[in-house]
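Feature request, filed as a ticket because there's no other form

It would be nice if the structure record came with a short human-readable summary line next to the tokens. Right now we just get the raw output. Example of a typical job, pasted below so the devs can see what we mean:
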Amino acid sequence: MDFKNLGLGLFSEASLKDAVGNYKVEHIHFEKINPNDEQHGYSLENIEELAANISNVGLEQPLVVEKMEDGTYSILTGRRRYYAIKSMIERGDDKYKLVPCIVKDLAAIDLPVSQETKRKYAIVSTNIEARKNTPQDVALMIKQMSEVYDELEAAGVKVEGGRRKFLADRLAISPAEVGRHQYLEKNADEETMEAFERGELTVKEAVAKTQERIGKKDVAPASKKSPSPVLSKENFRKRIKKIVKDASDAVFDAENLGLSEEIGKSVAELVELAKAVYESIS
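Raw output as currently delivered:
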């Protein structure tokens, strides 16, 4: 299955002007729209400023929603606009009590995953370009899109380039940025993660703090060398798999250390070579 550009053009804010021409804009009563807070979780900033702008110049882009079985509509993108309109209505300005919306059918997402996972994919995809995302938003998007990848993998879908490339392509960020967030998720302590989530640390600062903490850990005393495992194809594959993991981490480390582009490219080529060896051993 070709995942290139899947969902990006279909759901991105940049495509909404074209979408207005291709899809019927429906005017939906505000009270029938669910902001879907429990599934979004992204930051909400400058709502009153946005409300004033909408009041003065109008709503420039419609909301994108999904029609639910109970007749209500769940937001895929446009949550900030929803809350800005809510603020306007509460102040007595009801010009957008009927909200311009584009209704999307998630069946159009050609992925072998559940409806719930398609919804998650759509929410992340619609918010990549539709808003200015904080590092904390990006961390949540990586987590959500990783769950999509897990379900694809469970369905037997082989995604070219693996998890990190899939996440980088879907979220329009660099593989190194994905690696930084994955490193934090795996290694950061509670104090560092909470500081990052509060916006007190950047991603790079949180990574550096975590690396410093890990580096200061006492080194465990050397133990007697374990006997080599019995030579077998299975054990050989395990060793190659470890090389793939170590080399993948090294790609991130090379960029984090400011090493040359050539070094990073060479390590990335090593990853692909090790993957090819791993997959060729049956």
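Something like this underneath would help us a lot:
The first strand starts at residue 25 and ends at 29.
The two ends are 23 Å apart (CA to CA).
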